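Risk register update: the risk of archive-format incompatibility is retired. Evidence:
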Amino acid sequence: MSSNLSDIAHVMSRMDWYCALTKLVLDEDNNTFEEVLSRIKATIIELYEALLLYQMKSVRSYYRTRGVRFFRNMYGLDDWKDAIEVVRDTETKLQSEMGQYYQERTKTSLDDLVNRADERTLLLGNIKQDIRSFIAQQNVTRALIKGLELGYI
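Archived output:
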């Protein structure tokens, strides 16, 4: 019974995190990762099923009389170990999928950043040479103006 209490505590503590995660995934606007996100959504649904089944099984167990609970535990009719293992395996699967998703998302974002930087570099062209040419032309113009003012030209 104490094992079940720690397991239900684990399930309840993870529920808020997965609710927040669901909002993050469902609000995603990027179409590039649509298939990946749909798989992650399916895993989240699978996790919710496992969490809710575990919680319902726990509630049902708590409302049984002590004698019935004792005999069910003695004969292994309430297999708590397998039930919590399903929850933990699904959590691991989701964490793995999310890790892969964000890794790919990061790579794509970095590739986009590099492409934009390359585009900006092309737009700017050889600005250093253009500035040097402009300064040289201004120096020639100043020299001509100074020559006019002094009467050399």
